Amino acid sequence: MAIQSPSLDMTTAAAPAPVARPATRSYWQQVGRRLRRDPVTLVCGGILLLIVLAALGAPWLGLADPYKTSMLRRLYPIGSPNFPLGTDELGRDMLSRLIYGGRLSLFMGVTPVICALLIGGALGITAGFMGGRVNMLIMRIMDVFYAFPSVLLAISLSGAMGAGAENTLLALTLVFIPPICRVSESVTTQVRGFDFVDAARASGAGTLTIVRVHVLGNVLGPILVYATSLISVAIILAAGLSFLGLGVKPPEPEWGLMLNTLRQAIYVNPLLAALPGVMIFITSICFNLMSDGLRAAMDVKA
Amino acid sequence: MDSVLPVTDRGGPVQPLLLAKGLRKHFPIPGGLLGRTTKVVRAVDDLSLSVAKGETLGVVGESGCGKSTVARLLMRLIRPDKGTMVLDGDPVDEPHGITLNELRRQVQMVFQDSYASLNPRLTIVETLAFAPRAHGLAGAEAKARSRDLLAKVGLDPNNFADRYPHELSGGQRQRVNIARALALRPRLVILDEAVSALDKSVEAQVLNMLVDLKEEFGLTYIFISHDLNVVQYLSDRVMVMYLGKIVEIGAVEAIYGDPQHPYTRALLSARPSMDPRRRTREAPIQGDPPNPIDPPSGCRFRTRCPFAEDVCGKAEPLLTDTGAQEVACHMRIRGSGHTRAP
Amino acid sequence: MTDPKNAPLLEVEDLHVTFVTPDRTVHAVNGVSFALKRGETLGILGESGSGKSVTLRSILKLHPEHRTRWSGSIRLEGDEVLPMKGSALANLRGNRVSMIFQEPATAFDPVFTIGQQITETIRRHTGKSDADAWKRAKELLELVRIPSPAQRLKAYPHEMSGGMRQRAMIALALSCNPSLLLADEPTTALDATVQIQVLLLIRELQRELDLGVIFVTHDIGVAVEVSDRIGVMYAGKLVELGGVEQMVDAPRHPYTRGLLASTVHGGMRGQRLEAIPGAPPDLSAAPTACSFAPRCKYAEARCLAAPPPLTAATEGHLVRCVGRIDTLAA
Fold first, then answer.
1. Is A116 a domain residue?
2. Which range of residues forms the domain containing residue A177?
3. Are C218 and B200 an interchain contact pair (Cβ–Cβ within 8 Å)?
4. What is the nearest CA distance from A13 to chain C, expressed in angstroms?
5. Residue B92 has what DSSP assignment?
6. Could you say which of A198, C145, C270, C302 has the lowest number of CB atoms within 10 Å?
7. What's the mean pLDDT when you consider all of chain B?
8. Considering only alpha carbons, which residue of chain A is nearest residue C279?
9. Domain of A284: which CATH number?
10. Which residues does A273 contact at the CB level (< 8 Å), separation at least 6?
C-alpha cells in the first residue's frame, strides 16, 4: 500500500500562471546542505580532519623524534612534564608516536579501500549492468572469497606472503574486493531496472554512454558510502595484523603495533597502554558515523 | 532543425507503418539447482498486428495479458524468441533491412512510471538532450531543440529546463517523458500506460496534449492502457489481449458497440457505472485472470468463460474475420463444433 | 440519550492534521467535518494530496505520533478517539474499527499462512480456543466468497491471486466484528474484472453486517458504485458532500464539476476534454482563502478574502463555495 505523501504533487502550477522560479539545487548541493545541518556528521568530520592534518603535518609540529628511545624514561605516565601523553616501553614520546602512527594507520586503512573500490566497483558495475552469464561468473568467483571470514582471510594471506606494509595492503585489498563488488552489483542491478535506462536504450545510445550518463551517477554515491564504512574495518584489521606481528614491523609507529608492544605495560600503566586503542576507536567510529551521515544526506527523494 | 534527423515516408499512405508477424516471447523462470529453467511465462504468443500510418491503435487487457511485453518487443528492448517486424516496408534487424538503432529512432516509447523513467541526477534539459546527442547532434543544438520541445508540451523552458525531476509534479514529469519521446522526431510513439498514474484532472490535460501533438507532428500512436474509457476516447482501432493472445481486434466503434468475444464483453461491462440508479448488480465474470505460466489449453479464456464447451479445450480458436472485426472465439468460427457457432 | 439506531456511528468535527518535520510543515487536512450513520457508506473522492487518505488514517491514529499534530474531534459511538492511547487505542483498532488497504500483499506476513494470521488475530482479540478460531476463520472466508475455504486457509499469501488476497484481507478485517470499516483504495491495484467483484462484495457485506463504511478512492465510477453519500476533498477540505444522486446529477462545486467533466467516458470521442487548468496548491501554509480559487474560472474577489464556509445548498447537500451557486448551474 502506498502511504500517500500529502505533498508529493504540490509543486508550482503547470503551464499557466508563470510563477517566479524557485532556486534549483543540484543533487550534490542538496546533499551538502543536508550535511551542514547534521551536527554528528560535522563533528566526526572535524575530528577526522584534525587527525589527518596532524598526521600529514607531523614533521612540522615540533614533536619529539618518534624513534628516539631512552632506557631512562620508560613508561612515564600521562601528564609528565615534556611528555604530555607519557612515554612508551622504550622511552619514546607517546604523543609524537600517536600522531606519526596516524600516518601509517590511516594509510593502511584508506589505501586498500580505494584499491578495492576501483577493482571491486568496476567488477560489480560490469556484473550488474551486463547481467546473465557475466554476472554469474563474476559473482560466483566473489562468493568463493566470501566463504572465508574476512579476518581469517587477511591473516592467512599476510601470513603466506610474509609480514610488511605492502603485503598487508595487498591482503586487505583482496579482502575488500568481494563486499564492494557485491554492493556495486546490487545497486547497479537495481538502477538498471529503472525505466530511464530502458528509455536511454530506446533512444539508441551505446552501452558505454548509458553507463557513463545514466548508471555511474546513480550508483557511485551508495558505493562510496559503503566504502567509507569499510575504512574503519580496514584500520582495525590493519592494526590487528600489526598486533599479531603480520603487518608493519617495529620500530615504525603504527597504532596496532603500538598496542602490541605496550601490552607488557598493561599492569604498570594501563591508561598509557590503552592510548593507541583509543585512537583506533575514535578514528573508526568517526568513519562509521560519517558514513551513516552521508547515507542519510544522500537519500534525497523530494 | 528538422533537417538533422530526417525521417521520410517511403511506402505512401497505404503501406502500414509497422507490421509484426508471429511475435513470441516466453520468459524462462529460473528455478531449481544451477538455474535450470523448469517453467516459462508465455507472455506473448504468436502475435501479429499492423499499424496504419496516422492511426491510434489502442491495446487493452488485464495484468499478465502481455500488453507491456508487446510494447517492449516492438521497441526491441527485449528480443523476441520468434517473429519478424517490418517498418514502412523495411524489415527490422535483417540483412537487407534497417538496424535496431534506426528502428529506435523512428519508434519511441513513454513509460507509466513518470518518476522511474527520468534519471534523478540529470536536469530536464539534460534528459531531453541525451538522445539527440547520442545520435550526433551538437550540444548547443540539442539543447535548443530540448527547450523547444518543452514549450511544445506546455512547460515554460525558462522555468523548467534546469530543474530536476523530483521538483516536478507527476503530470509535469509525464510531459517531460513525452517530450523526450519526441526528441528524435519519431513516427510511431508507444504509450505504455502513460496516463494511468495521473490524477483525473491532470490526465485530461495530458490527453488533450497527446491529441495536439499527434496532429502537429503527424504521429502514429500505440496506446496501451487498462482504462477502457481512455482507450475508447483516443483510439481508432482497438486490440483486446488475454494471456498473451489477441482475442479481438477491430475498429473502436465495433469493439465498443458490438463486442463479439465474451471476454471483451465482460471487460466492458466490468466498468463501474457512472449512474447511481443503474449500479452493477452482478460481476460479469468470476475469478482472477489465470497465471500466464501454464495457460489453459485450447482457448485460454475458457476457464472463466460462461459458454465454454468441449471444443474450447481441444482446439485453439484462430482470429477470424466477422466483418467489422476479427475475433478468436469458437462461437464465431463457422463449423468449429461449438453449439453456438454459426 | 437519543435513539441508538439513529445516533451517528462516527462524528468528525473540524479535523485538522498537520505533519511537522524539520524540513517542512504540511497542512494535510484543514477542517473536515462529517458524520456517518450505522449501515451507511460514505465515499471520499479526491486526487493525490487532497488529504483523503490522511483523514481516513486519522480515525485510527495511524500516523506517527511524534510528527503529527491533530486537532478537532473524532467521536466513535460517542468516544473521543484523538486523546486515546495504549490499550484503548489497541481496542479501537482491533475490535471496533478495521481497515483494508490498496495493496493486500503488504498487509499479510509472507511467512505465515492466511489461516494462521486470521486465527491469530481472532485469538488475540476474543480469547477463543485454537479450534474455535479456526472454525471462525473458515466462516469468514465463506463470508467473503472464497471458494474451498478450508484449503485456502492453509495457503500462503503469495499462493493467492490479487483478488483472493484482497478478499482474505477483508476477511481479516471483519474477524473481530467491527462496526466501522475503513477502505483505502482497496480496488485500485486490481484488474477491472476483479475490481467489480470486490466492490460488489463490499457492498453486500456492508448490508449483511450493517457496517459503517468509509471508502476512499480517486475513481468517480468506483465511488458511485459503492457509496450512499459522496464527499469530495480538495487541498485538505471537503468541498462538497451530498447523496450520490445529488452529486452525480447536480454537482455544485466548480471542482466537482471539473472532476466530472475531465473524467473520460464513452461518447466523448473527438471532443476536447475539459481539463481543470493548473495543479493543486502547496500545502506548506494553512489556507487563507478558497484553495481552489487559483484554478477556478468563476473565482472573484471574495473567494480570496477568506476560506469559504460549508453551507447547505439543498437538504443534505453541503457545498464550500461562496460563488452564486445557482447561476453556476449551466
1. yes
2. 106-298
3. yes
4. 5
5. B
6. C270
7. 89
8. A13
9. 1.10.3720.10
10. A259, A262, A263, A265, A266
